[in-house]
Specification:
Distance between the termini: 38 Å
Number of helices: 8
Order of helices and strands: EHEEHEHEHEHEHEHEH
Helix content: 25-40%
Strand order of the largest sheet: 6-5-7-8-9
Largest sheet: 5 strands, parallel
Length: 216
């Protein structure tokens, strides 16, 4: 089970190290963390934790640290935002894929799922390669949809890396270029591509992307 806390602390060097060392000393694993400034003097750190036997005790002990202002128990990002669909490519195609993905996600979320959709209109081989590679740094990504008219070159290598090393499924529109050869699924209609992306990660859908061996 994943637990989450938000720690508000004094903004100065070494605070994050002190907090994480203390959590590690209690034999608790940190699975995800995100630090952000909330004022000129204070910063907040959202932390997802595993193997917590007594959350209330952990919170009480963290509050005793000199630099810590407050600690609150938070819902995990998985509970709030759920699995993520990332759509990258040309603006018009991205908008159409997002239409299908958001419509389908709404249908599943009403039934208890949590699926969110992120978009990035972008063009150019170098920029697309960088963006696709950066997907590996994002949490909870289930599917990447590449929406455009032409993609190839170094983009193919970036696709293979996030597929093989991070388990991200990749759906491509039926476009010109070598990207189709690297994707798990090629879909001609952009709205349908968005629908398929959500169905790939939804527990309430009966769809296995690995069993589809054709262009849709």
């Amino acid at each position: 089970m994943t637990n989450a806390i938000t720690i508000r602390s004094v903004d100065k060097p070494g605070v994050l190290k002190e907090v994480t060392n203390f959590i590690a000393s209690m034999n608790i694993n940190i699975s995800y963390t995100h630090l952000y400034m909330d004022s000129d003097e204070h910063a907040s750190t959202y932390i997802e934790l595993e193997d917590v036997d007594d959350m209330d005790h952990l919170v009480d002990e963290l509050k005793k640290l000199d630099e810590v202002v407050d600690v609150t128990i938070s819902p995990s990002m998985d509970e709030v935002w759920g699995k993520r669909i990332i759509i990258i490519g040309g603006g018009a195609q991205v908008a159409q894929v997002a239409l299908g993905a958001i419509t389908e996600a709404d249908r599943h979320n009403i039934r208890g799922e949590r699926i969110s959709v992120d978009t990035l209109p972008l063009a150019g081989e170098e920029k697309l390669t960088e963006a696709i590679s950066a997907v590996s740094c994002l949490p909870r990504v289930g599917v990447l949809v590449l929406a455009g008219s032409l993609m190839g070159g170094t983009i193919g290598g970036a696709i293979d890396k996030i597929k093989n090393e991070y388990g991200v499924k990749v759906i491509s529109l039926n476009m010109v270029g070598s990207v189709r050869e690297h994707a798990d699924l090629v879909v001609t209609d952009p709205v349908q591509a968005g629908v398929m992306a959500v169905m790939t990660v939804a527990k309430t859908a009966k769809f296995d992307i690995d069993r589809v061996d054709e262009v849709l």
